[in-house]
Amino acid sequence: MLTLYVKTGCPFCHKVLDTGAELGLTFDEKNIADDAVAAELVARGGKRQVPYLVDSERGVEMYESADIDAYLREQYAPQ
Fold it and tell me: What are the b/e assignments for 43-61, b being 16+ CB within 10 Å?
């Protein structure tokens, strides 16, 4: 399952969401506007920075939209 921590209006989050849509992926989106979600993000990754991807099937967690974009294309692009 892919979980993406986002913030409303974040252009970097939209970039990742657009890549996901292009690849036919769906995310469990968690918006850090909710204080409990923000605290969960900090507990997971150490920072209140979005986007933050959690790929629970592969055990991968990462910040930075460019890194997430590259990862999604490498792991999930049709072969």
Answer: eebeeeebbbbbbeeeeee
Q: pTM for the whole thing?
A: 0.95
Question: Cα 10 vs. chain centroid, distance in angstroms?
Answer: 12
The class level of CATH for 2-76 reads: alpha beta
List average pLDDT for each run of 10 residues in the chain, which is 79 residues long.
Answer: 97 98 97 98 97 97 98 93
Contact 15, 65 (CB under 8 A): yes
Domain boundaries, the chain: 2-76
